[in-house]
What does this fold into?
Amino acid sequence: MIKLRFFIFFILFTASAGLFAQTKSELEARRKEIQKEITEINKILVSTQQKEKSLLEEVEEIQLRIKSVEKLVRVYNQEANLITQSINENSNKIDRLRSDLSNLKEDYALMIQESYRSNNQQNRIMFLLSSSSFFQAYKRLQYMKQYANYRKQQGDEIKEKTEELQSLNDELFEQRKEKESILADNRKAKSELLEDQKNRQGLVAQVKAQEKDFKGEIQGKQKQVAKIDQEIERLIKEAIARENAKSGSKSTTRFKLTPEAEALAEDFSQNKGKLPWPVASGIVSMRFGKHRHPIVTTTMIESNGVRIDAEKNSNARAIFEGEVSQINKIPGANIAIMIRHGDFISVYNNLDKVYVEKGDKVFRNQDIGRIGTNPSSGKTTLFFQLFKNLKKLNPEHWIYKM
It folds into this structure.
Protein backbone atom coordinates (compact mmCIF):
# COMPACT_ATOMS: atom_id res chain seq x y z
CA MET A 1 0.00 0.00 0.00
CA ILE A 2 2.85 2.37 0.90
CA LYS A 3 4.56 1.60 -2.41
CA LEU A 4 1.37 2.25 -4.37
CA ARG A 5 0.80 5.53 -2.55
CA PHE A 6 4.41 6.55 -3.18
CA PHE A 7 4.08 5.72 -6.89
CA ILE A 8 0.91 7.84 -7.26
CA PHE A 9 2.59 10.66 -5.32
CA PHE A 10 5.63 10.46 -7.60
CA ILE A 11 3.50 10.71 -10.78
CA LEU A 12 1.55 13.70 -9.42
CA PHE A 13 4.75 15.38 -8.22
CA THR A 14 6.43 14.95 -11.62
CA ALA A 15 3.40 16.34 -13.49
CA SER A 16 2.96 19.34 -11.19
CA ALA A 17 6.70 20.06 -11.22
CA GLY A 18 6.68 20.11 -15.03
CA LEU A 19 3.70 22.47 -15.10
CA PHE A 20 5.30 24.72 -12.47
CA ALA A 21 8.59 24.86 -14.39
CA GLN A 22 6.80 25.74 -17.63
CA THR A 23 4.72 28.50 -16.03
CA LYS A 24 7.70 29.76 -14.03
CA SER A 25 9.86 30.01 -17.15
CA GLU A 26 7.07 31.83 -19.01
CA LEU A 27 6.74 34.38 -16.21
CA GLU A 28 10.52 34.85 -16.04
CA ALA A 29 10.61 35.48 -19.80
CA ARG A 30 7.73 37.95 -19.54
CA ARG A 31 9.42 39.76 -16.63
CA LYS A 32 12.67 40.11 -18.61
CA GLU A 33 10.74 41.52 -21.58
CA ILE A 34 9.07 44.15 -19.40
CA GLN A 35 12.33 45.02 -17.64
CA LYS A 36 13.95 45.50 -21.06
CA GLU A 37 11.02 47.71 -22.08
CA ILE A 38 11.42 49.83 -18.93
CA THR A 39 15.16 50.15 -19.56
CA GLU A 40 14.44 51.38 -23.09
CA ILE A 41 11.87 53.89 -21.81
CA ASN A 42 14.32 55.21 -19.21
CA LYS A 43 17.07 55.58 -21.83
CA ILE A 44 14.74 57.57 -24.06
CA LEU A 45 13.56 59.73 -21.16
CA VAL A 46 17.15 60.41 -20.05
CA SER A 47 18.11 61.45 -23.60
CA THR A 48 15.28 64.03 -23.68
CA GLN A 49 15.26 65.26 -20.08
CA GLN A 50 17.23 68.44 -20.84
CA LYS A 51 14.84 69.43 -23.63
CA GLU A 52 11.88 71.75 -23.41
CA LYS A 53 8.62 69.80 -23.40
CA SER A 54 4.95 70.60 -23.17
CA LEU A 55 2.93 69.37 -20.21
CA LEU A 56 1.23 66.85 -22.50
CA GLU A 57 4.57 65.39 -23.58
CA GLU A 58 5.69 65.08 -19.95
CA VAL A 59 2.46 63.29 -19.01
CA GLU A 60 2.70 60.99 -22.03
CA GLU A 61 6.27 60.02 -21.12
CA ILE A 62 5.49 59.31 -17.49
CA GLN A 63 2.36 57.42 -18.56
CA LEU A 64 4.48 55.09 -20.70
CA ARG A 65 6.67 54.21 -17.74
CA ILE A 66 3.69 53.77 -15.39
CA LYS A 67 2.05 51.27 -17.76
CA SER A 68 5.26 49.25 -18.02
CA VAL A 69 5.90 49.26 -14.26
CA GLU A 70 2.28 48.24 -13.62
CA LYS A 71 2.81 45.26 -15.92
CA LEU A 72 6.03 44.43 -14.06
CA VAL A 73 4.29 44.55 -10.67
CA ARG A 74 1.58 42.18 -11.96
CA VAL A 75 4.22 39.71 -13.14
CA TYR A 76 6.07 39.96 -9.80
CA ASN A 77 2.80 39.20 -8.00
CA GLN A 78 2.14 36.21 -10.27
CA GLU A 79 5.66 34.89 -9.68
CA ALA A 80 5.34 35.31 -5.90
CA ASN A 81 1.94 33.56 -5.91
CA LEU A 82 3.34 30.71 -8.00
CA ILE A 83 6.29 30.24 -5.65
CA THR A 84 3.95 30.38 -2.62
CA GLN A 85 1.85 27.65 -4.22
CA SER A 86 4.96 25.57 -4.86
CA ILE A 87 6.18 26.13 -1.28
CA ASN A 88 2.83 24.91 0.07
CA GLU A 89 2.94 21.87 -2.23
CA ASN A 90 6.48 21.05 -1.15
CA SER A 91 5.57 21.48 2.53
CA ASN A 92 2.71 18.99 2.07
CA LYS A 93 5.04 16.59 0.25
CA ILE A 94 7.56 16.87 3.07
CA ASP A 95 4.83 16.06 5.63
CA ARG A 96 3.75 13.01 3.62
CA LEU A 97 7.34 11.85 3.16
CA ARG A 98 8.04 12.19 6.86
CA SER A 99 4.94 10.12 7.64
CA ASP A 100 5.92 7.43 5.08
CA LEU A 101 9.50 7.45 6.39
CA SER A 102 8.29 7.02 9.97
CA ASN A 103 6.12 4.05 8.95
CA LEU A 104 8.98 2.48 7.01
CA LYS A 105 11.33 2.84 9.96
CA GLU A 106 8.77 1.27 12.30
CA ASP A 107 8.27 -1.66 9.92
CA TYR A 108 12.01 -2.03 9.53
CA ALA A 109 12.57 -1.99 13.31
CA LEU A 110 9.93 -4.69 13.85
CA MET A 111 11.49 -6.79 11.09
CA ILE A 112 14.95 -6.49 12.68
CA GLN A 113 13.55 -7.45 16.08
CA GLU A 114 11.76 -10.45 14.59
CA SER A 115 14.91 -11.46 12.75
CA TYR A 116 16.94 -11.23 15.99
CA ARG A 117 14.46 -13.41 17.87
CA SER A 118 14.44 -15.90 15.02
CA ASN A 119 18.26 -16.14 15.04
CA ASN A 120 18.24 -16.81 18.83
CA GLN A 121 15.54 -19.49 18.71
CA GLN A 122 16.94 -21.48 15.85
CA ASN A 123 20.23 -21.39 14.01
CA ARG A 124 19.85 -20.86 10.24
CA ILE A 125 21.84 -24.01 9.49
CA MET A 126 19.69 -26.03 11.85
CA PHE A 127 16.64 -24.49 10.19
CA LEU A 128 17.82 -25.88 6.85
CA LEU A 129 19.01 -29.27 8.22
CA SER A 130 15.72 -29.88 9.94
CA SER A 131 13.95 -29.91 6.57
CA SER A 132 12.03 -33.10 5.86
CA SER A 133 13.06 -33.14 2.18
CA PHE A 134 15.45 -31.54 -0.24
CA PHE A 135 12.58 -29.58 -1.76
CA GLN A 136 11.62 -28.16 1.65
CA ALA A 137 15.26 -27.23 2.32
CA TYR A 138 15.38 -25.47 -1.04
CA LYS A 139 12.16 -23.57 -0.30
CA ARG A 140 13.52 -22.55 3.15
CA LEU A 141 16.74 -21.31 1.52
CA GLN A 142 14.75 -19.27 -1.00
CA TYR A 143 12.67 -17.82 1.83
CA MET A 144 15.81 -16.75 3.73
CA LYS A 145 17.19 -15.09 0.56
CA GLN A 146 13.90 -13.29 -0.08
CA TYR A 147 13.74 -12.15 3.54
CA ALA A 148 17.31 -10.83 3.34
CA ASN A 149 16.52 -9.06 0.03
CA TYR A 150 13.38 -7.55 1.52
CA ARG A 151 15.40 -6.22 4.48
CA LYS A 152 17.90 -4.69 2.05
CA GLN A 153 15.08 -3.26 -0.07
CA GLN A 154 13.50 -1.68 3.01
CA GLY A 155 16.83 -0.21 4.00
CA ASP A 156 17.38 1.19 0.49
CA GLU A 157 13.87 2.67 0.44
CA ILE A 158 14.48 4.39 3.78
CA LYS A 159 17.73 5.79 2.41
CA GLU A 160 16.03 7.02 -0.81
CA LYS A 161 13.18 8.68 1.07
CA THR A 162 15.63 10.31 3.46
CA GLU A 163 17.60 11.72 0.53
CA GLU A 164 14.40 12.86 -1.20
CA LEU A 165 13.27 14.55 2.00
CA GLN A 166 16.59 16.38 2.25
CA SER A 167 16.33 17.41 -1.41
CA LEU A 168 12.83 18.81 -0.87
CA ASN A 169 13.99 20.68 2.22
CA ASP A 170 16.85 22.22 0.22
CA GLU A 171 14.46 23.14 -2.60
CA LEU A 172 12.06 24.69 -0.09
CA PHE A 173 14.89 26.80 1.35
CA GLU A 174 15.86 28.05 -2.13
CA GLN A 175 12.24 28.79 -3.02
CA ARG A 176 11.82 30.89 0.10
CA LYS A 177 15.00 32.82 -0.75
CA GLU A 178 13.74 33.36 -4.31
CA LYS A 179 10.36 34.55 -3.05
CA GLU A 180 12.00 37.06 -0.70
CA SER A 181 14.10 38.38 -3.59
CA ILE A 182 11.03 38.77 -5.82
CA LEU A 183 9.06 40.46 -3.03
CA ALA A 184 11.96 42.88 -2.46
CA ASP A 185 12.06 43.72 -6.19
CA ASN A 186 8.29 44.07 -6.17
CA ARG A 187 8.40 46.52 -3.25
CA LYS A 188 10.98 48.60 -5.12
CA ALA A 189 8.87 48.60 -8.31
CA LYS A 190 5.76 49.59 -6.34
CA SER A 191 7.66 52.44 -4.69
CA GLU A 192 8.76 53.74 -8.12
CA LEU A 193 5.22 53.30 -9.39
CA LEU A 194 3.75 55.33 -6.54
CA GLU A 195 6.27 58.11 -7.19
CA ASP A 196 5.43 58.18 -10.91
CA GLN A 197 1.70 58.12 -10.19
CA LYS A 198 2.11 61.03 -7.79
CA ASN A 199 4.04 63.02 -10.40
CA ARG A 200 1.48 62.16 -13.07
CA GLN A 201 -1.35 63.26 -10.81
CA GLY A 202 0.25 66.68 -10.39
CA LEU A 203 0.88 67.08 -14.14
CA VAL A 204 -2.62 65.93 -15.06
CA ALA A 205 -4.07 68.50 -12.64
CA GLN A 206 -2.15 71.21 -14.50
CA VAL A 207 -3.40 69.88 -17.84
CA LYS A 208 -6.99 69.86 -16.59
CA ALA A 209 -6.65 73.46 -15.53
CA GLN A 210 -5.74 74.37 -19.10
CA GLU A 211 -7.78 71.67 -20.84
CA LYS A 212 -9.29 74.03 -23.41
CA ASP A 213 -5.87 75.19 -24.59
CA PHE A 214 -4.49 71.64 -24.73
CA LYS A 215 -7.55 70.43 -26.58
CA GLY A 216 -6.81 73.00 -29.27
CA GLU A 217 -3.15 71.93 -29.35
CA ILE A 218 -4.13 68.27 -29.81
CA GLN A 219 -6.62 69.06 -32.55
CA GLY A 220 -3.98 71.16 -34.32
CA LYS A 221 -1.53 68.24 -34.25
CA GLN A 222 -4.27 65.90 -35.50
CA LYS A 223 -4.85 68.12 -38.52
CA GLN A 224 -1.14 68.02 -39.27
CA VAL A 225 -1.08 64.23 -38.92
CA ALA A 226 -4.14 63.95 -41.18
CA LYS A 227 -2.38 65.99 -43.89
CA ILE A 228 0.69 63.74 -43.68
CA ASP A 229 -1.50 60.62 -43.89
CA GLN A 230 -3.37 62.03 -46.91
CA GLU A 231 -0.07 62.74 -48.63
CA ILE A 232 1.18 59.20 -48.02
CA GLU A 233 -2.06 57.72 -49.38
CA ARG A 234 -1.78 59.97 -52.45
CA LEU A 235 1.78 58.78 -53.06
CA ILE A 236 0.74 55.13 -52.73
CA LYS A 237 -2.12 55.68 -55.17
CA GLU A 238 0.32 57.25 -57.64
CA ALA A 239 2.73 54.34 -57.20
CA ILE A 240 -0.06 51.84 -57.93
CA ALA A 241 -1.10 53.73 -61.07
CA ARG A 242 2.52 54.05 -62.25
CA GLU A 243 3.31 50.36 -61.76
CA ASN A 244 0.04 49.19 -63.32
CA ALA A 245 0.58 51.40 -66.38
CA LYS A 246 3.62 49.28 -67.22
CA SER A 247 1.37 46.23 -67.65
CA GLY A 248 -1.54 48.07 -69.30
CA SER A 249 -3.80 48.17 -66.24
CA LYS A 250 -5.64 51.40 -65.42
CA SER A 251 -6.37 50.58 -61.77
CA THR A 252 -5.22 53.13 -59.19
CA THR A 253 -6.37 51.17 -56.14
CA ARG A 254 -4.82 47.70 -56.55
CA PHE A 255 -1.46 46.50 -57.80
CA LYS A 256 -1.54 44.16 -60.80
CA LEU A 257 0.89 41.51 -59.61
CA THR A 258 3.39 39.48 -61.57
CA PRO A 259 3.85 35.83 -60.49
CA GLU A 260 7.00 36.85 -58.60
CA ALA A 261 5.16 39.69 -56.82
CA GLU A 262 2.29 37.33 -55.93
CA ALA A 263 4.76 34.89 -54.37
CA LEU A 264 6.39 37.71 -52.38
CA ALA A 265 3.00 38.97 -51.16
CA GLU A 266 2.02 35.44 -50.13
CA ASP A 267 5.31 35.03 -48.25
CA PHE A 268 4.73 38.39 -46.52
CA SER A 269 1.19 37.35 -45.55
CA GLN A 270 2.44 34.03 -44.12
CA ASN A 271 4.69 36.03 -41.76
CA LYS A 272 1.81 37.91 -40.15
CA GLY A 273 2.53 38.34 -36.44
CA LYS A 274 6.16 37.28 -36.92
CA LEU A 275 7.65 40.29 -38.71
CA PRO A 276 10.53 42.11 -36.96
CA TRP A 277 10.24 45.60 -35.51
CA PRO A 278 11.17 48.48 -37.85
CA VAL A 279 13.69 49.60 -35.19
CA ALA A 280 16.27 47.59 -33.28
CA SER A 281 15.01 48.99 -29.98
CA GLY A 282 12.09 51.27 -29.17
CA ILE A 283 8.70 51.73 -27.52
CA VAL A 284 5.28 52.32 -29.06
CA SER A 285 4.10 55.73 -27.86
CA MET A 286 0.97 55.88 -30.04
CA ARG A 287 -1.17 52.96 -31.17
CA PHE A 288 -3.04 52.39 -34.41
CA GLY A 289 -6.64 53.50 -34.89
CA LYS A 290 -9.07 55.98 -33.38
CA HIS A 291 -9.25 56.38 -29.60
CA ARG A 292 -9.60 58.96 -26.85
CA HIS A 293 -6.57 60.98 -25.91
CA PRO A 294 -5.11 59.34 -22.75
CA ILE A 295 -4.95 62.67 -20.84
CA VAL A 296 -7.45 65.05 -22.46
CA THR A 297 -10.19 62.40 -22.67
CA THR A 298 -12.71 64.78 -24.28
CA THR A 299 -10.61 64.72 -27.46
CA MET A 300 -10.36 61.90 -30.01
CA ILE A 301 -7.09 61.09 -31.78
CA GLU A 302 -6.52 58.90 -34.81
CA SER A 303 -3.43 57.26 -36.26
CA ASN A 304 -3.04 55.33 -39.52
CA GLY A 305 0.05 53.63 -38.09
CA VAL A 306 2.12 53.50 -34.93
CA ARG A 307 4.53 56.00 -33.41
CA ILE A 308 7.73 54.42 -32.10
CA ASP A 309 10.10 56.38 -29.86
CA ALA A 310 13.75 55.30 -30.05
CA GLU A 311 17.15 56.44 -28.88
CA LYS A 312 18.93 59.25 -30.72
CA ASN A 313 20.70 58.20 -33.95
CA SER A 314 18.61 55.02 -34.21
CA ASN A 315 18.04 53.53 -37.66
CA ALA A 316 14.83 52.41 -39.32
CA ARG A 317 15.09 48.93 -40.80
CA ALA A 318 13.08 47.00 -43.39
CA ILE A 319 10.59 44.56 -41.88
CA PHE A 320 10.73 42.24 -44.91
CA GLU A 321 12.45 41.79 -48.22
CA GLY A 322 11.12 43.98 -51.02
CA GLU A 323 11.83 46.91 -53.31
CA VAL A 324 12.16 50.58 -52.42
CA SER A 325 9.25 52.05 -54.40
CA GLN A 326 9.45 55.67 -53.27
CA ILE A 327 11.55 58.11 -51.27
CA ASN A 328 9.72 61.37 -50.63
CA LYS A 329 10.11 64.50 -48.57
CA ILE A 330 6.87 64.84 -46.60
CA PRO A 331 6.06 68.37 -45.38
CA GLY A 332 6.19 68.37 -41.58
CA ALA A 333 7.57 64.83 -41.35
CA ASN A 334 11.07 64.76 -42.86
CA ILE A 335 11.64 61.92 -45.37
CA ALA A 336 9.44 58.87 -45.93
CA ILE A 337 10.63 55.59 -47.48
CA MET A 338 8.07 53.18 -48.95
CA ILE A 339 9.02 49.56 -49.53
CA ARG A 340 6.82 47.34 -51.68
CA HIS A 341 6.34 43.66 -50.79
CA GLY A 342 4.06 42.45 -53.61
CA ASP A 343 0.82 44.33 -52.93
CA PHE A 344 1.89 45.17 -49.35
CA ILE A 345 3.65 48.47 -48.61
CA SER A 346 5.59 49.37 -45.46
CA VAL A 347 6.11 53.09 -44.78
CA TYR A 348 8.97 54.49 -42.67
CA ASN A 349 8.36 58.17 -42.00
CA ASN A 350 10.39 60.92 -40.26
CA LEU A 351 13.87 59.99 -41.47
CA ASP A 352 16.60 62.63 -41.68
CA LYS A 353 19.12 60.46 -43.52
CA VAL A 354 18.55 57.77 -46.19
CA TYR A 355 20.80 54.76 -46.92
CA VAL A 356 18.93 53.36 -49.95
CA GLU A 357 17.75 54.54 -53.36
CA LYS A 358 14.53 54.11 -55.27
CA GLY A 359 14.47 50.71 -56.99
CA ASP A 360 16.88 49.08 -54.53
CA LYS A 361 16.17 45.54 -53.41
CA VAL A 362 16.26 45.36 -49.61
CA PHE A 363 16.38 42.44 -47.21
CA ARG A 364 14.76 41.82 -43.85
CA ASN A 365 16.28 43.91 -40.99
CA GLN A 366 18.37 46.02 -43.41
CA ASP A 367 19.03 49.55 -42.16
CA ILE A 368 17.36 51.93 -44.61
CA GLY A 369 17.70 55.35 -42.93
CA ARG A 370 18.32 57.30 -39.73
CA ILE A 371 15.30 58.37 -37.69
CA GLY A 372 14.88 62.11 -37.24
CA THR A 373 15.16 63.80 -33.83
CA ASN A 374 13.02 66.78 -32.90
CA PRO A 375 15.50 69.52 -31.89
CA SER A 376 13.14 71.13 -29.35
CA SER A 377 11.77 68.04 -27.57
CA GLY A 378 14.78 65.78 -28.20
CA LYS A 379 12.44 62.94 -29.24
CA THR A 380 13.58 60.48 -31.89
CA THR A 381 10.36 59.11 -33.38
CA LEU A 382 9.57 56.79 -36.29
CA PHE A 383 6.09 56.93 -37.83
CA PHE A 384 5.49 53.44 -39.20
CA GLN A 385 2.57 52.42 -41.39
CA LEU A 386 1.51 49.29 -43.22
CA PHE A 387 -0.81 48.97 -46.24
CA LYS A 388 -2.22 46.31 -48.52
CA ASN A 389 -2.79 48.33 -51.67
CA LEU A 390 -4.68 51.32 -50.18
CA LYS A 391 -6.07 49.42 -47.20
CA LYS A 392 -4.58 50.56 -43.88
CA LEU A 393 -3.37 47.66 -41.69
CA ASN A 394 -2.74 47.64 -37.96
CA PRO A 395 1.03 47.04 -37.57
CA GLU A 396 0.44 45.51 -34.13
CA HIS A 397 -1.23 42.52 -35.85
CA TRP A 398 1.81 41.98 -38.10
CA ILE A 399 4.87 42.87 -36.03
CA TYR A 400 6.06 40.35 -33.44
CA LYS A 401 4.96 41.36 -29.94
CA MET A 402 4.33 44.99 -30.82
User: Anything to note?
Assistant: The first strand starts at residue 283 and ends at 286.
